[in-house]
Amino acid sequence: MAGSRTPSVRESGATTPLTGQGSSTPLPPLDKSGHQGNYSEEQTKILLDFEQQLKQEDCLKDDYLFETPDQIHIVLGRYLRARNWNIENAKKMYKDTLNWRKEVNIDQMVKPKEEGGYDFEEREKIGELGWKMYFHSTDKYHRPIFVQDLSYLQVHEVFQNTTPDRIVKFFALSLEDAVRNKYRACTQLAREEARKQGATEEEVSRIIVDDNFMILNVAGLGMSTFWSFKNKLQELLAILDANYPELSGRVQIINAPWLFTTIWSYIKGWLPPATAAKIDIAGTDYHSILFKYIDPNEFPEYMGGKCKCEGCTGGCPFSNRGPWNDKKNTTSETKVTNGEAIQST
């Protein structure tokens, strides 16, 4: 089957530039409800109550990316959205995440290799065997593009060269870097673009990029391949969804074979409903769908775009191309609030 398989239902997002990157045509606004800068009065009250309870239980002493009160609210908002704004459920999830972060020693993992940080040294080999994981540039809403390329995956060979635990750690490290650096850089870029287009500072202050556009390439993924690593995939998704909730604004599956509807019935059952609702499935003629959101110049040529990243050994999967490489996008900027509603307590 080719073309779109399921409707692209809800998309979350945290940025609505006046026009998209690489386009002069205004883009439709994303659904920003429940995100920093767009909380309702009730959500604001729940968020502040959640923050206060965590403080009283001494759960915010670990900085967990908290350089400013706004970063606290962005992170806590993710846990509340993931648990339908139920404070007790979100609190359990958050505490479990803190425990997991200590168990894997995430603060050590993010350090440079020379300082004992995590080194996924088999990354190139794993990529050759069909599992490529990387961030590459941004979509038209300035969200980072996160590529999971499983095309023609050789499962047995992959796990002869690595372990599920090492893949989980590399995946977690990629998302950790996105939260610490990439989303902030994309926010800076989105704000600058909005200013150039005449947005007021109040409008600019509400622009926050806090999720990504994920591409999942499943070309050649048959039932036998899926079945051979389904337990490992389920474990991976469970760990990441529990500790990095609400990081994908849209998930576009491409090159889905006709049997993928059966595979999808399994995967969908492993995902929270809110996550499953963000997923769109397309076959081999996915380009017209994808390029509504992504400028072809920002997408790897080997998947139908125009980017080659020729200056980088290994090309796009190893270039880490994006606004996060520009120093002007990696410094803190104006405080982002929900009008006057969000104040630290």
Automatic annotation (TrEMBL):
* Ranges of biased composition (kind: Polar residues): 1-25, 331-345
Which SUPFAM superfamilies does the entry mention? CRAL/TRIO domain, CRAL/TRIO N-terminal domain
Coiled coil ranges (UniProt) are: none
Question: By its UniProt entry, which InterPro entries does this protein fall under?
Answer: CRAL-TRIO_dom (IPR001251), CRAL-TRIO_dom_sf (IPR036865), CRAL/TRIO_N_dom (IPR011074), CRAL/TRIO_N_dom_sf (IPR036273), PI/PC_transfer (IPR051026)
What Pfam families does its record include? Answer: CRAL_TRIO, CRAL_TRIO_N
Instruction: Give start and end of each CRAL-TRIO domain.
Output: 123-311
Positions of the region Disordered? 1-38, 323-345
Give the PANTHER family listed for this entry: CRAL-TRIO DOMAIN-CONTAINING PROTEIN YKL091C-RELATED (PTHR45657:SF1)
Give the protein's recorded name.
CRAL/TRIO domain-containing protein
Q: Which organism is it from?
A: Meira miltonrushii
Q: What is the lineage of its organism?
A: Eukaryota, Fungi, Dikarya, Basidiomycota, Ustilaginomycotina
